[in-house]
User: What shape does this take?
Amino acid sequence: MKTASKVLGLFLASVLALASGASCAQGFPTKPIRFVTGNQAGGGTDILARSIGPRLADRLGQPVLVDNRPGADGVIATEYVAKAASDGYTLLLGADGQMVLNLGLYAKLPYDPLKDFTPVTRISFTPLVIAVHPSVPAASVAELIALAKAKPGELFYASGAPSFHVTMELFKKLAGVNIVHVRYKGAAPAQTAAVAGEVGVIMSSLGPLRPHLQSGKLRGLAVTSPVRYAAIPDIPTMSESGLADFDVVPWIGLFAPAGTPREIVEKLSSEVVAVLNLKELKERFAAGGVTLAGTTPAELGALQHADIARWMKVMKDLNMRAQ
Assistant: This one.
């Protein structure tokens, strides 16, 4: 009799928990939601947040605010969200640099990208482009490699994010060249330095780099995606340029603090994906070289796990030691 009562009690508790979760999601949100980004205003995640936010607010009936917390390769913003309440009101628009690569770049990372977060949905992906200032006498990857081999340590490259840095180090390893890394506090200052000719080479995401390629202020040599990208069809891939199987396509995802109720995560995911599927938004970002592509929470989690496995090995092979 006691056993039957215990089983009944457990059953009722589980039913109440499910009902509570569903009720919680049904009433969510009741106050403004914050998108926290590791970029300054005008950076990649900031632009996405400010484009998605108003449309998501229309669907949810509450404002969506953008909270910029730049610095330290996104560590400041990411740590902030990791320590936020698990209620769905504080969310991270995090790049793969924050959620994957920082594991290998920082010896004492103040957050665990797997244990401290719940994936919500991937937001976007975009390939990187290796480009040079017009003063650099190289019109192709082959010519850049030849120049770098003729002048080892005399060329400098700018990077403004972990994914740009690691990808360029991979390029150097495969090409067998010594191009000196110059680190900048974000993609925008790195691009400004490249356009000004302070550095001769840059590895950066296509979206913000594209206007400089179109104006001729920078010369694109190759794209890091496995196939040519529709927004810049005349720029060859790294594989076409002689570096076989060079496939790097960074992404940005939406993450909630660990412990956020599953029903709230699923509601956020479905609503954000609906915004990402809006035709006018997709077309606007595609024209700039950014593909909006939502996923389920599980799909983003699988992508993150796979990328951690891949890039930790790559960084070990590159002898990139955590700081």
